[in-house]
Amino acid sequence: MQLTIWPNYLLVITVLISSSTGFQTSAGRPNDLNFTAAQAQAASCDQACQTNLQEGIDGDVATFGSVPFDSSFYATAPNFTNSQPGALLKLQQLNETTLDIPPGTSFFLMQYTSVGLNGSIVPATAFVALPFSADIASNQSSPIRLVAFAHGTIGYVPSCAPSSSYNGYDYFTWEILSYPGYGVVATDYAGLGNNYTTHKYGNPVLNGNDVYYSVVAAREAFSGTFTNQWAAIGHSQGAGAVWGLSENPLVASNASGKYLGGVAVGPSARLYDILTLANPNSGYWPMVKNIFDGLPFLPQPNLLTPTALNRTQLISELQLCFDAISVLNEDLPAWGLVNSTPAITAQNGNAYTAFQNMFGAATGKKVYQNLLVVNSVDDQTIVVNATLKAWNASCSAGNSVHLSLYTGGLSHTQSFPASSPEWLQWLDNQFTSGGTANATGCSISTATPFVSPIGIVNNG
Ligand SMILES: *[C@@H]1O[C@H](CO)[C@@H](O)[C@H](O)[C@H]1NC(C)=O
Ligand SMILES: *[C@@H]1O[C@H](CO)[C@@H](O)[C@H](O)[C@H]1NC(C)=O
Ligand SMILES: *[C@@H]1O[C@H](CO)[C@@H](O)[C@H](O)[C@H]1NC(C)=O
Ligand SMILES: *[C@@H]1O[C@H](CO)[C@@H](O)[C@H](O)[C@H]1NC(C)=O
Ligand SMILES: *[C@@H]1O[C@H](CO)[C@@H](O)[C@H](O)[C@H]1NC(C)=O
Ligand SMILES: *[C@@H]1O[C@H](CO)[C@@H](O)[C@H](O)[C@H]1NC(C)=O
Ligand SMILES: *[C@@H]1O[C@H](CO)[C@@H](O)[C@H](O)[C@H]1NC(C)=O
Ligand SMILES: *[C@@H]1O[C@H](CO)[C@@H](O)[C@H](O)[C@H]1NC(C)=O
Ligand SMILES: *[C@@H]1O[C@H](CO)[C@@H](O)[C@H](O)[C@H]1NC(C)=O
Ligand SMILES: *[C@@H]1O[C@H](CO)[C@@H](O)[C@H](O)[C@H]1NC(C)=O
Ligand SMILES: *[C@@H]1O[C@H](CO)[C@@H](O)[C@H](O)[C@H]1NC(C)=O
Predict the structure, then answer these.
(1) Whose CA is nearest to atom 10 of ligand 1?
(2) What element of type H or E holds 323?
(3) In ligand 10, which atom is closest to the CA atom of 392?
(4) Fewer CB within 10 A of the end CB, N or C, for the chain?
């Protein structure tokens, strides 16, 4: 088909026009707010904390770049009420010269209906990145191969939407899919971008729903453009979402097309194992607390000291995203984590287990299609023993999961691009075979560096 002709779209595609008023360098984003010393002190954030906070905010600003946050796009569509899961609500194309994405790629913002807590419908947003033309190997005149991408941790407040970043929050992630010609639909997850519901951070079941319905909506937005077959890949939080997706009975139906399987790199699948095995000195604790804030019916863990708890108000006041959140408690003993007593350990263990049973992945559920799991043995965020437990639990339940371990010092973030030769081949095999490749049961392989990069510094 001719990719330059778009007459059949149900939506009027509006093109965001760059103008002298449209793109200021830093204003125009809700997370570009400057804090005052008094505001920080009111949240128990003293001088050392303020220095870290400013550095973290600078990091967040760099994550999003100079693209303004389009509040009217992220606002809930008037026709969200009574819509069906997977319904397309809004679609608009951005002028990609204002972005930093692979040249020739076109970039769309999409709002659609997903399913949140207790089966309620929720609005979610995503971006769709289309290649200039389809992969030659899959025949240029063929439809575009569709892959859903699920991003890693970026924060939990609405301003932290990957689709609002100058590069779709690429950190050597989704763009790798554009070069071989995949069409990428990348959900923000509900609650990031749109504020109708709170983001359900690190929730494989609900984040997996958001991935699934992004595919249904993208098919409506670009009718006839994509292959019926589709696959998914995610990193970290998103790898947990892909694992959750692979256990979602929806993928066994044909409503989204034929799901070929997924790739999970550094998966946040089993919360209990990840948190009890991980290094406790980490900036993730405010994020972990937020997982439970959104699920008040579960047993709640006791995680943050009073000082660290006071500081969490800055996350919503200043719309902090991951760079700022991760350094917010760096100056505190044990990064603001409470001193563990046996009672607290038991309380937190109960909370993690309850979460894992209800919303986790790799807890013994059926996996409906093949799953390739990748983990660096040196990953300090998702430690390899947690992923080994997840693999073992899923395989013990009779599923077909291949685990590929990477040696050589790769960090949590580095393992995604470093393993791309393997997962690109795996995806191609799935598309070529119609999903039957690699349906060979459970196995583990180990990849070692051909030549170790001399510059690998593992910062987690
Ligand atoms: C919502 O409204 C847009 C037009 O603004 C329309 O294109 C879309 O199909 C509608 N979606 C639903 C589910 O009604
Ligand atoms: C896209 O942006 C470029 C550079 O600012 C500009 O020259 C071009 O006219 C814009 N295209 C549209 C359709 O607005
Ligand atoms: C924050 O401060 C910087 C300079 O330090 C300034 O450029 C920017 O406009 C300020 N942002 C807001 C929202 O006032
Ligand atoms: C949600 O976002 C809309 C605009 O998108 C804004 O008008 C509204 O104030 C926001 N609500 C909250 C509670 O922040
Ligand atoms: C949602 O489900 C949970 C767990 O089943 C339940 O405890 C809670 O009351 C439900 N919330 C609503 C608003 O229905
Ligand atoms: C590409 O697909 C078209 C239409 O299905 C077919 O006619 C053509 O032979 C294919 N070309 C190659 C090189 O496979
Ligand atoms: C999905 O489609 C395939 C054929 O493409 C068919 O064999 C299968 O039964 C369908 N599954 C469902 C649940 O409709
Ligand atoms: C937390 O904030 C409250 C109210 O601002 C304050 O009274 C309290 O002393 C703070 N706690 C700590 C440990 O800083
Ligand atoms: C990981 O598990 C292996 C085998 O059970 C064990 O020998 C090793 O000490 C564990 N490593 C860590 C860091 O817990
Ligand atoms: C693997 O799973 C089986 C069955 O659940 C369990 O008995 C075994 O202890 C697990 N092994 C490890 C290393 O976790
Ligand atoms: C299975 O996946 C691996 C990558 O993990 C790939 O190297 C291998 O070729 C695949 N096997 C088949 C039969 O497709």
Answers:
(1) 89
(2) helix 322-327
(3) 1
(4) N
